[in-house]
Amino acid sequence: MTTHNEFSRCVAQYDPHALPVPAAQAITREWATPVTAVERVALRDALDRVLAADIVSPIDVPSHDNSAMDGYAFNGAALAAAAPAVELTVVGKALAGHPFPGRVEGAQCVRVMTGACIPQGCDTVVPQELVERSADSASIRFLADAVRAGANRRLAGEDLARGHAALRAGRVLRASDLGLLASLGIGEINVRRRLRVAFFSTGDELRSLGEPLDAGSVYDSNRYTLFAMLRRLNVDTLDLGVIRDEPAALEAALRSAAASADVVLTSGGVSVGEADFTRQMLQTFGDVAFWSLAMRPGRPLAFGRVWSGGRPGLGLPALFFGLPGNPVAVMVTFYQIVREVLLLMSGATPQPLPVIQAASQCPIRKRPGRTEFQRGIATQAANGANGANGQWQVTPTGSQSSGVLSSMSEANCFIVLGHDEGDIAEGERVSIMLFHGLI
Ligand code: AMP
Ligand code: MG
């Protein structure tokens, strides 16, 4: 585990007053220590869990050569021997699950259905629609150039070969993977234990649902966006409620969070006006750096480690992210900074979020020197319409204020404007990240 000094050294390499997003990502990534505990779960409980070890295929899938078509199986050598037409005697049939028991000789064939084992002596299947059957169905005729030798045969092991890794450790299991494991006859697997993430909101102005809204107060929405985003990552969540802006209350909440979770997320209390107060408290009992990210929204961020014992090295540690208070900034920093760390700590091998190019439908103002994540509405031109050929187009949502959460609900993507980019002209291409499957 990284020590207090290593943390300070690691963080000191950067200017905390304008930390570029990639630098922040590099530091936080370095601090992600994956959970090691393993649980055995039934296949149906494995969706979205992280595979703990490679799955080596115990069998060939399919286990036998089988037919890809409804048709007739025969020895492909018969094609060369007989031109222009091939005539074969039908000696039996094979259905999926009911193999033909005998051996097929030169001018013979077997009626086969899709998935049926290819009978012994055969290597080729002619589809039924290409053959002419005799009146009594005892023989078939087809043109020799209708099929090639070896056609329409699925080979044993062509899906998954015995002894090969079918799935790799670190994979977040999807629907197809559950089916794939079932095709190997595997009903239980080892997965990493779920990551535990505690979160709370800070602010004297915050009210929880069910409480009356008095003058100057707002309902706490960050705990709901955080809860939902964490759910998508399939981590265990621990909601510690709203904590008042009081050092003793904050300290107690952080210590209890560190005692029971791997990661603690808070929102609020890290902006310029409030950071001093939070910083004072955190400096005593954690290794925490306060950053001003070169990013919009989401400029202020605190990152480090907190300890349940109230001092670095005392009790149990938890990784700590002090996210900004503004509701949009919470979501943006979660996706751009926190998400990857949570996946790494879950034992997963995260893939970068897909970025696609879209033509901006209007000019966008952007100052170089920070990465911006504007909320956008992306549409794809109908294929072929106006010659656009499915090109993506994007328009920023009305308000880009980091307090306007409705901009997130209205949007379906982030427009990602890179650190060095300046103003965008109408029609210029920009990078977008679709929310689909993410938010
Ligand atoms: P702060 O970072 O604590 O200064 O908060 C910045 C802004 O975000 C303020 O307008 C807060 O009222 C608002 N805010 C902070 N936390 C929340 C929350 N949990 N839900 C909704 N708004 C919040
Ligand atoms: Mg606050």
TrEMBL record:
Required cofactor(s): Mg(2+)
MoaB/Mog domain sequence ranges: 198-344
Annotated metabolic or biological route of this protein: Cofactor biosynthesis; molybdopterin biosynthesis
EC number: 2.10.1.1
Superkingdom assignment: Bacteria
Gene Ontology cellular component annotations, sorted alphabetically: cytosol
GO biological process: Mo-molybdopterin cofactor biosynthetic process
Magnesium found in the keyword field: yes
Family: Belongs to the MoeA family.
Record's function text: Catalyzes the insertion of molybdate into adenylated molybdopterin with the concomitant release of AMP.
This protein's name: Molybdopterin molybdenumtransferase
Source species of the chain: Paraburkholderia phenoliruptrix
Upper taxonomic lineage: Bacteria, Pseudomonadati, Pseudomonadota, Betaproteobacteria, Burkholderiales
